[in-house]
Each structure stands twice: as C-alpha cells, then as structure tokens.
Amino acid sequence: MSIPYRRKMNAFTPLVEANHCGQSTSASECSLWRGRCIEEFAFAEAAVSEALSHLSTIATSGAEGLLPHLVGKRFEALRIVVDAEGPLAAVGSRVASALDEFKDLHRYRTFLCHGTSATIEESMGKWRLIIKLTSLRAAAIQQTTLEIGEDEAALFLARLRHARQRLDGQIRGMLASFRA
C-alpha cells in the first residue's frame, strides 16, 4: 500500500511502506543467512573471550595477561594455552581440536562482516551471493571476492553452527574441570 504525499503544485508522490525496503526475496534471504553466520561467529568469540578471562585468574593456566584487544588474537592466545606444549595441554586438548575445526571456518568472518555484497538470482529460484572485500596490503589496495550459492551457504552455516557449538561445549567442559 502506498500513501500519497502532497507536494507543491498538487503533485503526488507515493511513499512506500516503512517495512518494505525494496529488496528482492533473494537479497533478503542472503542478508538473513549472512546475519546468522555473523551471530555464530559472535557466540564463538564470546566463548573464547570468557574462557580467557576465567583462565587469566588461574595462576597455573599460563593465561595471565592474555586478554588481547583483537578477537583473532584471542583465538590465538587460547590456542597457545591449550596446545600440546601449552600449560593446559592435559585438560585442553579437546579445545585445541575444536579451535582447529573452527579456524578453518573463521577465515570467512572478514568477508561476512566487512565485505560488500550483491545478490544474483539463478535458475530454479536459487540465489548466489557475491561478497567483495577491499583491504590494504603492503600499502596497496587488494580486492578479493567470495561467491557462494544458496545450497553451499546452507551447508556452510550448518558446519559453522556445529563447529561453534562444539567449541563452546569443549570450552565449558575445560572450565568445569577447574571448578571440580
């Protein structure tokens, strides 16, 4: 439904309803998928940050002072603590394995959070998302592109959700061993 807006000289301009932003269904589905992925990354980042915060209070954890500002550095800091040579290798080996699984997916985070996107409607009503990322490397602009189709995107989200839940569970298990 459009609502007429009266302008000078009796001209009418229709106003579009506020809840309709002009996006196609495919573009809306892509945005929803992208938001769900970002949410999974945020949950994982919170779990890692909370783990480091808790471990930093335990003298034998080797995590004292390991509360980096950047999220990527937090994953690295936790990995160092639970690594096979780290101070928590005995209780953190499963966390290390879960971090390795999650790291494979974490490389897409930058595209999803910082890239610009375009949606293409393919045959059979499927969509394809093209995400372009512009970064500065060695004082030069570098552009990289990620393309993902609807079916591949659904599989990616399922893998991401599983990896995040596994990481969260392993972190909780490790932290519970300190409380026992």
Please explain how this structure is put together.
54% of the residues lie in helices and 19% in strands. It is an alpha+beta fold. It has helices spanning 25-55, 71-82, 89-106, 109-114, 150-179, and strands at residues 3-6, 12-15, 116-121, 127-137, 140-149. Strand 1 and strand 2 (12-15) form a beta hairpin. The strands form two sheets. Strands 3-4-5 form a three-stranded antiparallel sheet. The chain has a two-stranded antiparallel ribbon with strand order 1-2. It is elongated, with a radius of gyration of 22 Å. The chain starts with a strand and ends with a helix. Helix 1 crosses helix 2 (71-82), helix 2 packs antiparallel against helix 3 and helix 3 runs antiparallel to helix 5 (150-179).
Largest sheet entry: 3 strands, antiparallel
Strand order of the largest sheet: 3-4-5
Query: Roughly how much helix do the residues carry, as a percent range?
Result: 40-55%
Strand content: 15-25%
Helix run count: 5
Parts with pLDDT < 50 across at least 5 consecutive residues: 5-10, 15-21
The overall pLDDT average reads: 84
- Overall shape: it is elongated
Determine Rg (CA atoms, Å).
22 Å
Classify the secondary structure makeup into a structural class: alpha+beta
